[in-house]
Amino acid sequence: MFGDQVSSVAIPYTGILALRADAAETGFLTAAIWLASLIFAVHAGAWADRLGHRRLLMITADLGRAGLLALIPVAALLHALARWRLYAVAFAALPGSGGCCLHHCQVSRCRPKIPLKRLA
Fold first, then answer.
1. Burial grade of 62 (CB within 10 A; 0-12, 13-18, 19 or more)
2. Phi (first) and psi of residue 81, to 5 degrees
């Protein structure tokens, strides 16, 4: 979760420093980071519960997000960094689509401290 917070600050700064993004574009990047979470959170949570295999799903989501985030420095080194790439990575890699599955699986793997009988 700490990496999500760092990346949600670093991606708009990358847009400012590397692509000379103005205030509106920086706001759109920040909105893209959280938009996927708003759209996919409920559906990804239900899908993760139905699928089972939470550990495999968590590992797959982490590897996919790491691969997407690795595209930013690689594209910058190849002088191919564009605004649309930042928007795509911000939408797909951060707390959005992949992160919804990951965080839901993390929470559901925790053992409850209160027995289920006492919750009813």
1. middle
2. -75, 125
E strands within 1-119? none
Q: Among 37, 96, 26, which Cα is nearest to 61's?
A: 96
pTM of the model as a whole: 0.73
> Tell me, what's the pLDDT at 39?
85
Angle between helices 54-77 and 2-19 (to 10 degrees): 20
In 44-120, the DSSP E strands lie at none
How many residues are listed for the chain in this entry?
120
Q: What is the DSSP letter of 113?
A: S
Tokens of 5: 């917070």
pLDDT, one tens digit per residue, over 85-96 is 999 998 888 765
